[in-house]
Amino acid sequence: MTFLHYLRIWLTSARYSIMRTLMFRGDFFVWALVELFWMTVNILMVSVIYEHTKSVAGWSKYEMLLLVGTSLLIQRFLMGFFWSSIFEMGRNIRSGNFDFYLAQPGNVMFMATTRKLDPDSLVNSLVALSVVIYSAHQLNLQPSFLAIGCYALLVVAGIVIHYSMLVLCISFAFWFTSAQGIEGSYFTLSEFSRLPREAFKGLANIVFVWALPMVIVSNAPAQMLLHGFKPSLLAWVLGIATGWFAVTVFVFNRGLRRYSSASS
Amino acid sequence: MFSILNKYRAVFLVGLQSNLVYRMNFAVRGFFSFFHLIVVFILWSAAYTGNREIGGFNFGQTFTYFVALIIVQFMIGAFNEDYQISEEIRNGLINQFLLKPVNYFAYRFSIYASARLVTGLLILIPVIVTYPLLKDYLTVPADWWRLALGFPALLMSAVIQFGIAYCFGLMSFWFLEIQGLVVLSMALESLLGGQIFPLDLLPAWLFRVSQFLPYYYQMYFPVAIFTGRLSDPSAIMVGLGIQAGWMLIILAIGQFLWQRGLRLHTAVGG
Known about the structure:
The complex is a heterodimer of chains A (about 260) and B (about 270). Chain A has about 260 residues and is mostly helical. Chain A contains 12 helices and no strands. The mean pLDDT of chain A is about 90. Chain B has about 270 residues and is an all-alpha fold. In chain B, helix 3 (about 60-75) packs across helix 11 and helix 8 runs antiparallel to helix 11. Chains A and B meet through helix 2 and helix 9 of A and helix 2 and helix 9 of B.
């Protein structure tokens, strides 16, 4: 019952976002092009590096493309489903407009972070998926249904992890009122997710692979597709997804208690 | 003549002060640039494993290129000039310049110059702090002629950087929303300006084509002169010629857009 309730709310928001997009078609077109172009830049970088070398940290060109495609796929989904809402949340907390969400019929974190869809990112997720499929085809991969299922599950876990990290960062606005620079920091950190895990050594391995999850988020699904089902990897990623999500919910609710609207 | 210079000197000084106020913003940006440098380091050292050279350059030379790129970016990069100009047009703030003997291009350029002076000097702090970590990987060529040719290239790059941002900002006379266009051109600039990878790693014919585009002279050209990726002085002289050409073309386009745009502009209110 509750699930259906939230699904209905979400579908209403989605319908509203799509209608808005249809009103500003030119805008949709330009932003879809922007994202497409940035994705192409990433893919070109891989191609140029592999013009000069056969392997990077043991990954061949198409293995690397599969990794980059996976990382872009997760990012597109995050941007498509949550980015605008999460980004606005920071501003709303500062301006006091966050009151609006407190009065809505549902969990505040759900309401505040799922209000807007970005159809341009969702369209581009198809492009990212094509990169993954194309690379898998070039590698002659014949993944089992289990591997494909796990890949999808890991991508979802990846979205949960990215979502949690972003909401966590923005939640600090409850304390500091300013969450500026989060946008830039997210994009810089997401650069790490396009690197193979084997390239990280020493301190970098501890920080970016073990302490922060961005490297494993994209590496795990790619590895699952390349090398088949690995239960320990699946358990690890699902574990950190649950952990980060729990911490985020806790911090968000703590912050919410501090929220006192804004004086004007 | 001196009174004209004095006018823009005042603008420059005000710009200097307002940029010092926002030093925290700068600190955040500088901090994340170094994260980007970590990504560059990890990626390229993995690519160099098993290859002594890539495109004729060793790891130290390539890493030096990326470090220099960040420094030069803070020295001459146009960050949000296009956005500021666009806001001034949309909010009607440019109306005041139409009534006063102030050249809008010179006014904006003075602010840009003061902003880059501040960020260009501030970026040296993290570079000096991290120098003990970086120094084993840096290879800076010690040819004096590089400075003699590199500095004019750097100056013209600054004008091209600002000029492109200025033109995009002026687009606000025609379009309500230019943010999408700006991000699109940013992607193009980072790719063809050599910020994603050194342009000399492109296939030879593409590298040749890139040398005739303005983006090449926006960033790659001066950085490649300083870090030794370009080593033929006579070819660099030709490059300086093409760069000067692009600089004049972009300035002319800016002037054209300003004049055309003003015809469309309506100043409302008082």
